Amino acid sequence: LALEIFEFLVSMFVRRLINHFLIESSGPCRTTFVYFNKSCYKFFKEPLVFNRAARLCKNIGSNITSVLSQEENDFIYNLTRYISGRTGNSRIWLGLERLISSGKLEWTDRNVFSYQNFELGEPNGNGACVEMSEEGHWRDTCCDEPLGFICKAGE
């Protein structure tokens, strides 16, 4: 019972935090974006394959989100869970892909790849793209799987 109460309180806190970002803190972002830590984020629930998601983000002046810190990873994870709903599919694309020329993972927005949050045993070479799992960890996967995604503009 204590765990259920704790989970409920945490979920209420997260909802209020996200509502604050969605309603009160658009900052320098367009109204459909959420402002966090000097960047603007827009969640797309409709699943698209990686290349189509990347193209859509480019068309609105952004990139599929990079994740540069644990704080940002937690924000993206909580935003995704909040918008998807607890029981919804909360797997999303991250803007991290494996280059054919070098085999190295790089952010599509050209940020330096230093922070990472891969599941144990990942990346395992199963794909050229990277998703965030329902638990907030990352794994490489096939780029042709339709997933939700977040576009990020700013830093």
Written account of the structure:
The chain has 155 residues and is α+β, with helices and mostly antiparallel strands. The chain is built from 3 helices and 8 strands, in the order αββαβαβββββ. Strands 1, 2, 3, 4, 5, 6, 7 and 8 form an 8-stranded mixed sheet that branches. It is globular. The termini are far apart.
Low-confidence stretches: 20-25
Biggest sheet layout? 8 strands, mixed
What's the β-strand tally? Answer: 8
Give the helix tally: 3
Element pattern in H and E: HEEHEHEEEEE
Share in helix = 25-40%
Overall average residue pLDDT: 86
| Gyration radius from CA atoms, angstroms | 15 Å
Q: Tell me what portion of residues adopts beta-strand conformation.
A: 25-35%
End-to-end separation: 42 Å
Instruction: Return the structural class.
Output: alpha+beta
What would the principal axes of the Cα set say about the shape? globular
Question: What's the arrangement of secondary structure elements?
Answer:
Layout (H helix, E strand, L loop, with lengths): L1 H23 L9 E3 L2 E10 L1 H10 L3 E2 L5 H15 L7 E7 L6 E3 L21 E4 L5 E4 L5 E8 L1
